[in-house]
């Protein structure tokens, strides 16, 4: 359980185009920002839960992120596993304000 979080600016919204994803480092923490088709923005731990592969090396098509290593697939809007099911990405609360993307990290 996260008791307290602190929203930190990760990047400007125009740094991650709709339909793209990018990894940013904030206070020595890496975060995967996904700007999903349709405009929703999500923030995840950038490592695949399967065998700790970098998700940025994968492919984002529509709202499905496919890990490059073993082709695990995740719904980027929910973070839930599509193939296989029963798994999920670690997500962080995210908000967009004043043209920037802010992510909540544990204090």
TrEMBL record:
One of its GO terms (molecular function) is 2 iron, 2 sulfur cluster binding. The keyword Iron applies. Its cofactor is [2Fe-2S] cluster. Residues 8-103 form the Rieske domain. SUPFAM superfamilies: ISP domain. Keywords: 2Fe-2S, Iron, Iron-sulfur, Metal-binding. Pfam families: Rieske. This is Rieske domain-containing protein.
């Amino acid at each position: 359980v996260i008791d307290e979080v602190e929203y930190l600016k990760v990047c400007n919204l125009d740094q991650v185009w709709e339909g793209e994803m990018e990894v940013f480092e904030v206070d020595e923490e890496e975060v995967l920002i996904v700007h999903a088709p349709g405009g929703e923005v999500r923030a995840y731990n950038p490592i695949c839960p399967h065998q700790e592969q970098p998700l940025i090396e994968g492919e984002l098509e529509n709202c499905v992120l496919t890990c490059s290593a073993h082709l695990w697939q995740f719904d980027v809007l929910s973070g839930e596993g599509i193939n296989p099911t029963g798994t999920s990405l670690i997500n962080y609360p995210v908000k967009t304000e004043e043209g920037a993307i802010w992510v909540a990290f544990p204090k």
